[in-house]
C-alpha cells in the first residue's frame, strides 16, 4: 500500500520514506497535493509534513478536494486550538514535532488497516458494490469515482431521507463545514450525469429545495436477480 507524503524538505521526505518502508508502506513524495485521479487512486493514507498550522490547514483542505484517504498532519508550533481545528477539518491524526518518525509510520499503517477493514452499511449492499466501486440500477451498472461512491453510500444509509449538505461534506470529504453547498452540488450534478437516464429530470438522486439531497430506491428490485444471473 502507498502513502502520499506532502513535504517541503527533501531530508524530511527521505526520513519519512524510510520509516514507512520499515512498516511495509511505500511513499510517494510531492511538494503539493496532486489532483489527477490516477495519481490518487492507489493512495491509502496521506501524510502532511508542514512548518506551521496555516500551511497544514490549507494543504489538507486542498488535498481533501480530490481524495478521501485519511490524513496525518505532522506540524511545528501547534497550539491546542490549532490541533482541534485540524481535527475538525478532517485530519485523522495530528502530531506535533519533534516526534519519532516511527510513530508517524505506525499511525499510517494503523489507518490503512482501518480503511481496508471498513464495510458499507447493510442497507447499501443491494445497489452498491464496494469492491468494484459501482452502483447497479434498473438501466445499468455504473462505475464511480471514490467521491461519487462515498456520496451515494452516505445517501443510501438513509434512502428516502434528506441529508443536509454539511452532513454530506463530513461523510464524503471528512470535515465539518457549513459553507460547502457548491462543493456538494457539483458532486451531485456529476453523479446525476453518470447514473440518471435523464439528468435534467432525475429519478433517483433528488433535491429537497433549500434543505438537501436524498436517494429514492427503484420501485422494483427484480433487476438485481437478472444482473446476478438468478
Can you characterise this structure?
The chain is built from 9 helices and 10 strands. The protein has 230 residues and is an alpha/beta fold. The chain has 2 domains: 2-117, 3-Layer(aba) Sandwich (Rossmann fold); 122-227, Arc Repressor Mutant, subunit A, CATH 1.10.10.10. It has a 5-stranded parallel beta sheet, sandwiched between helices. A hairpin with a 2-residue loop joins strand 7 and strand 8. The longest helix has 17 residues, at 101-117. The protein starts with a strand and ends with a helix. The model has no long low-confidence stretch (mean pLDDT 84).
Using only C-alpha atoms, the radius of gyration works out to 19 Å
Q: Which structural class best describes the helix and strand composition? A: alpha/beta
Helical proportion?
A: 40-55%
Question: Ends: how far apart?
Answer: 36 Å
CATH superfamily of the largest domain: Response regulator
At CATH level 2, the architecture of the largest domain is 3-Layer(aba) Sandwich
| Beta content | 15-25%
Mean pLDDT: 84
**What ranges have pLDDT less than 50 throughout 5 or more consecutive residues?**
none
Order of helices and strands: EHEHEHEHEHEEEHHHEEH
CATH class of the largest domain: Alpha Beta
Query: How many distinct helices?
Result: 9
Q: What is the fold named in CATH at topology level of the largest domain?
A: Rossmann fold
Main sheet strand line-up: 2-1-3-4-5
Form type: elongated
Q: How many domains comprise the coordinates? A: 2
Number of DSSP E strands: 10
The biggest beta sheet reads: 5 strands, parallel
